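Per-residue structure
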Amino acid sequence: MNERRHVHRYELCIPLEVSSGPPRLARTQSAHLRDISTHGIYFLIDDLIPVGTPVDIQFALPPERGRSQSVLVRGTGRALRVDSVPGENGKLFGVAASIHRFDFVRPDERAA
């Protein structure tokens, strides 16, 4: 199978918070980010998120050299593909989502 991706993906294994569904009925769940690019993410989650569902994601990038605090990343997009993935404690779902917008929140802006 040929690689169809045009953007490099970066592997990240960090906790992720996912809100899915219509805004007033959105359900928030914990997940694990597996990889990310400028246009999308792939994450593992316990419960099924149907293809086409709007998603809001949020995760913290760990501190780096020269930066003492983490940076909060928020994104908005839509589930594009869902895979069934075997997990240690049962079934997991791998969700590929397009992300239309990423926002980076500095630590000093979080309280505002």
Notes: The radius of gyration is 15 Å. The chain has a mean pLDDT of 85. The domain at 11-109 is CATH 2.40.10.220 (Thrombin, subunit H).
